Amino acid sequence: MSESILSPGGARRVDARLESAGLLDLTMEEAGRAVADAVQASFPEGPVLLLAGGGANGGDALVAARHLLTLGRTVRVLAQPSKHPLTRLNRRRLRATGGEVQPLLVAALRRASASAGVLVDGLLGTGFVPPLRPALAGVMGALNAAHDAGVPVLSIDLPSGLDASSAALPDLSVEADMTVTLMGLKAALLFGAPATRAGRVTLVPLRVPPAWVRAEALATRPGDAEVAALLPVRTTGAHKGTAGRVWVVGGHSGTVGAAALAGQGALRAGAGLVTVHSLADVPLVTPELMVRRHADWATALPELHKGALPDAVALGMGLGPEAVQVAREVLTWGVPTVLDADALSPELAGHGHPQCIWTPHPGEAARLLGTGTAQVTRDPLAAARALQQLLGGAVVLKGGPSVVASGGDGGGSLTVSRGGHPGMASGGMGDTLSGILAALLGQGLDAADAAVAGVRLHARAGERAAATHGYGLTATDVSEELGAAWRNLLEL
Ligand SMILES: NC(=O)C1=CN([C@@H]2O[C@H](COP(=O)(O)OP(=O)(O)OC[C@H]3O[C@@H](n4cnc5c(N)ncnc54)[C@H](O)[C@@H]3O)[C@@H](O)[C@H]2O)[C@@H](O)CC1
């Protein structure tokens, strides 16, 4: 199932629709109940200490407290005063069912947390507008101190203090072991240092009309079954000429391995015939790979153009200083093309076509956009969208997780990949990905589908290889798991 990623503004607009339909009370009830269920399932022992802020995030905590009470748990609630009508209503409901609500004071929090089995953070959700007001800073400091002392913390919607739409870490935010996020994912739960504050994230979609949420989604995160549906299917009559002919254009003195890895990735992602074109001597990492060494590109490219062109090209991996010139010419062929590494230059903006996939990492993205890497990593969704507008085709902004932006009617789409492994942070991984993407283009996928499927395939292969190699993972290990990763996606 595809999951939606919501901005605070998007969540607010769904909220407004729920309110005008008279459903907001039921939604808060469902949210609070889901939080109580998560507490029961993951933290079944000891008293539950719930902290409720003044907004609807606090309202969710009050609903959770009522359910936990009726389940027989010992419950302690510390709450800020609230003007929110539903939060006030749920405070009355909690009291009416025997729950006590005390003021949210640092001293009371310190006392109660000493014996708590779990602490529930319902202070701030998507309604938080930075910067944090000092009154809550002391409370959050005491909450984090309890966490450091070993009390597990469950945050509602997102850890308090995080800006839902930003991947930048604020000075102070709650450190959670688990986050129950509501209706849709939030960018802060997926990217950068804020994501590490959230612990294990569980999405509770809530029974809200899916179309309302989809209409507000900044981006989606496709499920594996949806990715599997994009993968090419062969007929029994398939042969090497119909399974995609891929050219890898890359490699230079000292960086020939990059082209070889891309070639290997393409073969392992199902390409029928893969030829590496280079000015350098490319090692035959896989004997099935064909290699053509050229004297110079000025002569080689027109010659190649005169013959049968391939179904897809991967270009730029270790290609060196001539990459932009080579890319300019290859792009005129109109063949589906993956542009990576040295070919990721702002000079190529306007030279691409709809069947191009551009694959920058954050540093390359910053260079393309004329900005800093920090700006790219602070908001990878916005950066991916801006790159797609600059370059056209599909863009894979690589990272953990990667973002795919593609064009099209209605403004195109943004998807966030799932999975992968930190062991994939090693040289050559991007080269393998370029080969995979070219193989999928060569097997007939369009740029957007190839990008989404290829990134997930790469991540899944990385997960498999990491099970054996951990942080010692190499790009070759990932390539070797590609066939099994493909099977895993299909076997769901
Ligand atoms: N449809 C939805 O969007 C749903 C939302 N729900 C909950 O509602 C939350 C959003 O509720 P709200 O919009 O009421 O907002 P929040 O409850 O997230 O935040 C508002 C509260 O935070 C305080 N606050 C804001 N900025 C602050 C700052 N800089 N320093 C200190 N305090 C600050 C405000 O004074 C107010 O008390 C979600 O995160 C989620 O937990 C759920 O009830 C389920 C349905």
Q: Taking all residues together, what is the mean pLDDT?
A: 96
Q: Please tally the helical runs, counting DSSP H or I stretches of 4 or more residues.
A: 19
Q: How big a fraction of the residues is strand?
A: 15-25%
| Coarse morphology | elongated
Unreliable sequence segments: none
- Rounded to the nearest angstrom, the distance between the terminal CA atoms is 12 Å
* Helical percentage: 40-55%
The bound ligands are: ligand NAX
- What structural category arises from helix and sheet content? alpha/beta
Largest sheet: 9 strands, mixed
* Spatial strand order of the main sheet: 12-11-10-13-14-15-16-17-18
Domain YjeF N-terminal: 11-214
Binding site for AMP: 398-402, 430
Cofactor: Mg(2+); K(+)
Protein name: Bifunctional NAD(P)H-hydrate repair enzyme
Structure described in brief:
It is built from 19 helices and 18 strands. The protein has 492 residues and is α/β, with parallel strands linked by helices. The protein has a nine-stranded mixed sheet, with helices on both faces.
What does this structure look like?
With 492 residues, the chain is α/β, with parallel strands linked by helices. Helix content is 43%, strand content 15%. The protein is built from 19 helices and 18 strands. The strands form 3 sheets. Strands 12-11-10-13-14-15-16-17-18 form a 9-stranded mixed sheet, sandwiched between helices. Strand 7, helix 7 (192-197) and strand 8 form a beta-alpha-beta unit. It is elongated and about 85 Å long. The termini are close together. Bound molecules: ligand NAX. Ligand NAX binds next to helix 1, helix 2 and helix 3.
